[in-house]
Amino acid sequence: MINLIFLGPPGAGKGTQSARIIDEYKIVQISTGDLLRAAVKAGTPLGKEAKVYMDGGQLVPDSLIINMMKERFESDDCQNGFILDGFPRTTAQAVALDEMLQNELKTSVTHIISLEVDDEVVVKRNTGRRVCPSCGATYHIKFNPPKDGGKCDKDGETLVHRDDDQEETIRKRLGVYHDTTSLLKDYYSKSGKFFELSGDDHPDKVYSKIKEILG
Ligand code: AP5
Question: Which atom of ligand 1 is nearest to the CA of 130?
Answer without folding.
Answer: 44
